[in-house]
Specification:
By secondary structure, this protein is of the alpha/beta class. The termini are far apart.
Length: about 850
């Protein structure tokens, strides 16, 4: 069969699978039209190549995304299984993807599971020949801000001054320094008024756009009809041996080679792991069981509890969800399209929400617009809407409408003026007054600046809904899968664990007998994965699990040392596992386990008391020794957990300061994203890293410090004067309170410090105590005993406890002998007895 015939056969067979034996006429007509365009443009083979490698992935159980970009607007793609979004149902346009009136190469981007994307590339390489397939090179270049910063550093400009200049460059994608000078009067003023700054900017302009380094393009793969060397020089990446084209993506297209985008999407990995955990727990479920009308999913989205939910987990996005309260899939498509700098800055999101909630009336100047704009409450939100308006009001073909859409998006004045005349003429011929036609065109032009590709938005909203559904119905499995997918990202693990605790999901520590390689579901809890322990590589963990599988659970640490291969499970691995608490269930303290492993492994290395034979008398004597009851201090335990896991699991050193931090309004690291640039802020955390540098201008010392709280970390910039004053305070693992201003940079949020103090010393400066109001008679006679029990269990704090007793008209304040930590969890326990609001930190 010819490619055209084979594609047609696949498409019609797929249409029946998708819609049933008797498809609606609209589907049949559209499929016929799309196939004709594809055949006419000579792209049937392209579709078949994509269909082939996607089919391979699905046969091998490699997760594939539902679509990406404008390809989701193709019914042919939907019918042959390239995409999973019905373009007819969601008003997606084929011509947005492939325009018969503007010849260009089709571009189907495909998302694969991040962990298995390489398998699909290997398949393509084997099918077409390794000399016909390569990944594409990409060059990192000096953008406007980076060029200014680099040149400023080379010219010994003070950090503050270079930072101020770079921040005057507007946050516009691909903006040049010259464009920034034209757009920002303050930058122009500095340039013309200061010779040194002019020199800096002139040099930066000459360097701007130059390549800095080469790397592998995140997605691009090229397939050639004959060996690639007939078309392009090749390059071997020295770091991993990947063969790449020396021509970049744009050059590859210009010489006529066929490019495909194979993207690795971690969310697909998370979904796949969630399904695996659901099945392991004996539940029957597939993604086909998901209903896009599911009430619980929309309730979860409206609550803003979206940690881990694709595209919807940022603080700003959570705020939009809470305000909008989405209740249909179309709302989710709109949210994905709206949450971008343009619509955010224009107030478009707030307008959309007001219209959805009926607070602002939805008006359409023309009845013809109602059908097109109803889904977005009268706002032109999608590029496809611009195309449909041009088609319906002014008789544009969809191909012409796509050319108009592109011209509006790229702001081409000459082309726009011609198209405006054609639009008004067409609208007038349909009985629309010229004045109204002009107004509609101007509206289209205005919103085209913010308009988003609905096909892409719909595809990603679909993945977002899938993850939200899984979180709503299978929260433990979903969060465990999220943790397993992020085992190499400590910050994300901390954030997800915080989310788990807020959901009431307990995180169980790693256990040498109960943990798997990855995080695993245990009832309503999640057991920590052994491979997430730092220093415990895959080979070591596989050996431990194999030993456990062959001969059952480990009975003691000596049993463990005898059964594992110490060439793989070496001293470093064992020490990391001990510090992480993985041996706690073997009735041995972490301190004793460390001593025992160290002594026995050392002896084994010298040929003494072999661990591969029978258990030695040294082992027995050590297990019975007085070391048994000795343990590290709480601070040491937490510090070792941090070292081995990258974070604390049995607690956090900062929780003992909860009450005081709440009182002074300290901002958590996870909430810093909500603050504006230059906002004043107080943060607290444990100093986990300090990088000291010397300023080039005056050769003074300053520092970049990493401060960690239970929800993440933030970088603190300490300038020379404050650094000198704080030198004795800036010690690793010290709890600090920092006051300063927010510094929003391209690399994230930092705090420019104006005040630093040891949190303990800061605490002592404040006159405070815990005061508990107790009203008599008590509900239960045992309440006072329960309070006493809480006081005794938390008796190593610094806050004196006062009881304010009330009986009828009598009030009595007494000081107890107890001092408490002020941890929020403990104070909540007290309020469960005394009532909400009864505990006051004075």
């Amino acid at each position: 069969q010819s490619p055209d015939k084979f594609l047609e056969k696949l498409a019609y067979e797929g249409l029946i699978k998708r819609t049933g034996e008797n498809p609606d006429e609209i589907y049949k007509e559209r499929l016929k039209k799309e196939l004709e365009i594809i055949k006419k443009m000579g792209y049937s083979s392209y579709f078949l190549i994509v269909w082939d490698f996607i089919s391979y992935a699905k046969r091998k159980g490699i997760p594939v995304g539902p679509g990406r970009g404008s390809a989701a607007g193709s019914l042919v793609s939907y019918c042959i299984g390239i995409t999973d979004i019905d373009p007819v149902k969601y008003n997606l346009l084929f011509e947005r993807f492939l325009n018969p009136e503007r010849i260009s190469m089709p571009d189907i981007d495909v998302d694969f599971c991040k962990d298995r994307r390489g398998e699909v590339i290997d398949y393509v390489s084997e099918k077409y020949g390794q000399d016909h397939v390569a990944q594409i090179i990409t060059f990192g270049t000096m953008a406007a801000k980076a060029a200014i910063r680099d040149v400023g550093r080379a010219l010994d400009f003070p950090y503050n001054e270079v930072d101020r200049i770079a921040k005057l460059v507007p946050n516009t994608l691909n903006i040049t320094i010259q464009e920034a000078l034209n757009a920002e009067p303050e930058l122009k003023k500095l340039y013309t008024g200061n010779q040194k700054i002019q020199e800096l900017i002139d040099i930066a302009m000459r360097l701007e756009g130059l390549s800095r380094h080469a790397s592998t393009h995140a997605a691009g793969v090229v397939i050639s009809p004959s060996p690639l060397t007939d078309f392009t020089p090749l390059y071997k990446n020295p770091s991993d041996g990947t063969i790449m084209t020396q021509f970049d993506m744009n050059s590859i297209e210009k010489i006529g080679l066929l490019k495909f985008d194979f993207l690795g999407l971690k969310t697909l990995t998370i979904i796949e792991k969630t399904l695996k955990y659901i099945k392991e727990n004996g539940k029957e479920f597939t993604l086909n069981d998901i209903s896009l009308d599911d009430k619980e999913t929309y309730e979860l989205l409206s609550s803003g509890n979206t940690t881990g939910v694709f595209q919807l987990e940022s603080a700003g996005m959570r705020d939009v969800l809470v305000k909008m309260t989405p209740d249909r899939f179309e709302d989710l498509i709109a949210i994905v399209a709206l949450y971008r700098p343009g619509p955010i800055g224009s107030g478009m999101i707030d307008d959309f929400i007001r219209r959805k909630k009926g607070l602002t009336p939805v008006k359409n100047d023309l009845p013809q617009l109602k059908e097109i704009l109803d889904e977005s409450y009268g706002i032109i939100l999608y590029q496809e809407q611009v195309m449909r308006i041009a088609n319906k009001l002014a008789n544009f073909t969809m191909g012409q409408a796509d050319i108009l859409r592109k011209a509006m998006g790229k702001k081409k004045p000459d082309e726009m003026e011609k198209l405006k005349e054609v639009f008004i003429s067409g609208a007038v011929s349909n009985g629309i007054p010229e004045k109204k036609a002009k107004k509609v065109f101007d509206l289209m032009e205005l919103f085209a600046e913010y308009g988003f590709n609905k096909s892409h938005s719909a595809a990603y909203a679909y993945i977002a809904f899938q993850t939200a559904y899984l979180k709503a119905h299978y929260p433990v499995e979903f969060m465990a899968a999220t943790l397993s997918a992020d085992m190499d990202n400590t910050d994300k693990i901390v954030k997800t664990i915080t989310g788990c605790r807020e959901m009431g999901i307990e995180i169980l520590p790693p256990d040498i007998n109960l943990s798997g390689k990855e995080f695993r579901v245990i009832g309503n809890s999640i057991r920590f994965g052994l491979e997430a322990v730092k220093g415990a590589g895959s080979a070591a963990i596989e050996n431990i699990i194999e030993a456990r599988k062959n001969d059952g659970p480990f009975k003691s640490i000596s049993d463990f040392l005898q059964r594992v291969d110490q060439r793989k499970v070496n001293k470093k691995v064992i020490e990391s596992l001990i510090k992480a608490g993985a041996f706690d269930s073997l009735n041995i303290t972490r301190l004793k386990a460390m001593e025992f492993a160290s002594n026995n492994m050392n002896n084994s290395a010298r040929g003494q008391a072999s661990l591969l034979g029978q258990q030695s008398f040294l082992t027995e004597a050590f297990e019975d020794s007085e070391m048994e009851q000795k343990e590290w201090s709480r601070e040491e335990i937490l510090r070792n957990e941090k070292e081995s896991l990258g974070f604390y699991i049995s607690g956090h050193p900062l929780t003992q300061y909860d009450a005081i931090l709440k009182r002074i309004g300290a901002v958590k690291s996870s909430n810093l994203d909500d603050l504006h640039d230059n906002s004043e802020v107080q943060v607290a955390g444990i100093l986990t890293a300090i990088r000291k540098i010397q300023t080039r201008s005056k050769s003074e010392m300053m520092a970049y410090c990493t401060l960690e709280d239970p929800e993440g970390h933030v970088e603190i910039i300490v300038f020379p004067e404050l650094f000198r004053k704080s030198l004795n305070i800036l010690q690793k693992d010290t709890p600090l309170i920092v006051k300063g201003t927010v510094d929003r940079t391209e690399k994230g949020i930092k705090i420019k410090a104006t005040y630093i103090n040891n949190l303990d010393a800061f605490n002592e400066e404040l006159d405070h105590r815990i005061e508990i109001n107790v009203k008599f008679p008590l509900k239960n006679n045992s309440d006072m005993l329960s309070l006493k029990s809480i006081f005794e269990s938390d008796s190593k704090g610094r806050y004196p406890v006062f009881l304010r007793l009330f009986y009828k008209d009598t009030e009595l304040l007494i000081q107890t002998d107890y001092k408490m930590s002020g941890e929020e969890t403990v104070l909540k326990k007290i309020e469960e007895i005394t009532g909400k609001g009864a505990v006051i930190l004075q």
